[in-house]
Design brief:
This protein is mostly helical and 114 residues long. Helix content is 35%, strand content 0%.
Length: 114
């Protein structure tokens, strides 16, 4: 969920909750208590490990599969490399601007058969 008064993306929000010791606040309230808190916290930890700044700090997909099926002790994640913060001015201007280019000013071409 993105609010105009906040400048972090979902990864930044998850990191903030993790650092604050409240990662389970990411869970949808409508789930109630129908999930394993330890499993969800472990999945959040794994996901934060997968978005580390350097590839060497990220687990491989085969490692992720092994981790998901075991009780291996995981390292603590470092600050993710994909926080992509926007200033409130940038967020406001991006909502008011609608043009045919992407953020990097490249156009998208669609090919159609004759």
């Amino acid at each position: 969920m993105y609010h105009l008064d906040h400048s972090i993306n979902l990864i930044g929000h998850a990191w903030s909750l993790w650092k604050g010791g409240n990662p389970l606040e990411l869970v949808d309230q409508f789930l109630g208590e129908s999930y394993s808190q330890s499993e969800v916290a472990r999945c959040i930890q794994i996901s934060l490990l997968c978005v580390q700044q350097t590839p060497e700090d990220r687990p491989t997909m085969s490692s992720v599969l092994l981790i998901l099926g075991s009780e291996i002790v995981l390292p603590q994640p470092k600050e993710p490399g994909f926080l992509l913060e926007k200033t409130s001015l940038e967020a406001d201007s991006s909502l008011s601007k609608h043009n045919s280019t992407s953020v990097n000013n490249l156009t998208i071409s669609l090919f159609q058969a004759r």
